[in-house]
Amino acid sequence: MTRNLILIAGFASMSVRATAQDPRLPARLDAPTIAAINAVVDSAKAQGIPIAPLYDKMNEGMAAGADGPHIVTAVRNLSMDLASAHRALGALATADEIKAAAYAMHAGVPAVELGRLKKQSGLRRSLTLPFTILADIVSRGVPVSTAANAIRSLVGAGAKDKDINDFQRNVKVDIEQGAPPAAAAETRAKGAPSADKPKSEKPDQIEM
Amino acid sequence: MPEWGRTTLEMIVQDLQRPVILDESFERRVMVRVRRLYREQKKRSRGWTAIGATIAHRPAWAALVAAGIVAVATAGILKARPREEVVVGGPEPVKFVLVAPSAKSVAVVGDFNNWGLNKSALVATSNQGVWSVTASVPVGVHRYAFVVNGKQWMADPTAPRSSGDDFGMPSSALVVEDSTK
After folding, report:
1. Across the beta sheet with B130-137, what order do the strands follow?
2. Residue B80: its chain A contacts at CB < 8 A?
3. pLDDT at B96 over 60
């Protein structure tokens, strides 16, 4: 009798746990979609992957009016990109770096390139912005290898985030004015300021 | 220097040069105190010196201890999670601007406001077709879009593109930096 009661209590608690829903999951999604997203999120949690971007993707899909299966596919694909980015960048990467890297991968940048950049830059330099710019210029037609080399040379030369933003704007304008994307990126990367370069002196400051 | 001053100075110097005579038991009392202090200090540090001696004489133990330290450190690094929950800086003000002279309304939606779900979209105001709105956005990387006339999504033409448009809606990327750093 006691054993049966324990079993019933166990099943009851299991069913409560199964129906318990993350408060971030909105009520308007259907049950299979919620279950599928919960499974993706649980798996991501177990792997130590940031889960906030997964909920953001779900919200984006709902705001765009996408159907359940479409949302689940997008969330699952993002989860896989986040997992690959996490593996490529290592355990000490920040959640923002992983998110930016996942979107760079979505744009076509291989994980190995992102990992190489992270290794080169070390722990102190955040690569959130460089990864974001890398994804942008690749989406504008700059070949992946050229884009990765350009960003790597900028980061390696100690360029600040502001310099990398300027680089992106210049490349964008050059491409819009008809320049071949690869040539624009290569040329602008060579001309970008960096921390290593000495500041030019004004003519009146040069001692004769 | 006046005479009285010189005399006083000479007297002081002579007094200071005079040898100090201590009683016979002074040196003995000092040495007793020094020996006691030395014994107490040795007693306190005996634990660590004993371990050091063991390790020095047994290389296998030393290797084992070193391996343990490396294993603990490695496990800590491997178990480390991305720093998702740690918010270093608070939200930063960001101004969104879109030039759309023919638009009737412009709003901003993004992952920082749940993509406008539950009427959370940021409503921009127009100044002769230059629409703008300023919002506090958390530090980090974000994706956003403008919604023109309540239905047309468009990316910010001045911002980096975001590649994650899985639903056919263009969006832009935004990296908000911590202004306190």
Report:
1. B92-99, B130-137, B125-127
2. 91-92
3. yes
Catalogue the long-range contacts made by A195-203 (C-beta closer than 8 Å, 24 or more residues apart).
A195/A157, A195/A158, A195/A159, A195/A160, A196/A157, A196/A158, A197/A157
CA distances for B128 relative to B44, B68, B146, angstroms: 80, 69, 18
How far B131 CA sits from the closest chain A CA (Å)? Answer: 21
In order of A71, B111, B130, the CA distances from B151 in angstroms are 19, 18, 19
pLDDT tens, position by position, A54-90: 999 999 999 998 999 999 999 999 999 999 999 999 8
Q: Which of B114, B152, B158, B181 is most worth mutating to test chain A (most A CB atoms within 10 A of its CB)?
A: B114
Nearest chain A Cα distance for residue B158, angstroms = 8
Whether residue A40 is predicted with pLDDT greater than 90 in this model: the reply is: yes
Q: Could you report the per-residue pLDDT of B104-163, keeping only the tens digit for each?
A: 999 999 999 999 988 889 999 999 999 999 999 999 999 999 999 998 999 999 999 998
- Which string of b and e fits A3-36 if b means at least 16 CB within 10 Å? eeeeeeeeeeeeeeeeeeeeeebeeebeeebbeb
Q: How far is CA B53 from CA A195, B45, B49, B58, B62, in A?
A: 50, 12, 6, 8, 10
Q: How confident is the model at residue A14 (pLDDT cuts 50, 70, 90)?
A: very low
CB A44 within 8 A of CB A69: no
Cβ contact A116:A67 at 8 Å: no
Euclidean distance between CA atoms A12 and B81, whole angstroms: 33
Give B125's strand partners. Answer: B132
Pull the structure tokens for residue A156.
């390696």
- Measured at the CA of B132, the angle between CA B130 and CA B138, to 5 degrees, comes to 155
Closest chain A residue to B176 measured between Cα atoms? Answer: A129
ipTM score for this prediction? 0.79
B69, pLDDT greater than 50 = yes
Q: Which pTM does this prediction carry?
A: 0.69
**What CA–CA distance (Å, rounded) separates A107 from A69?**
22
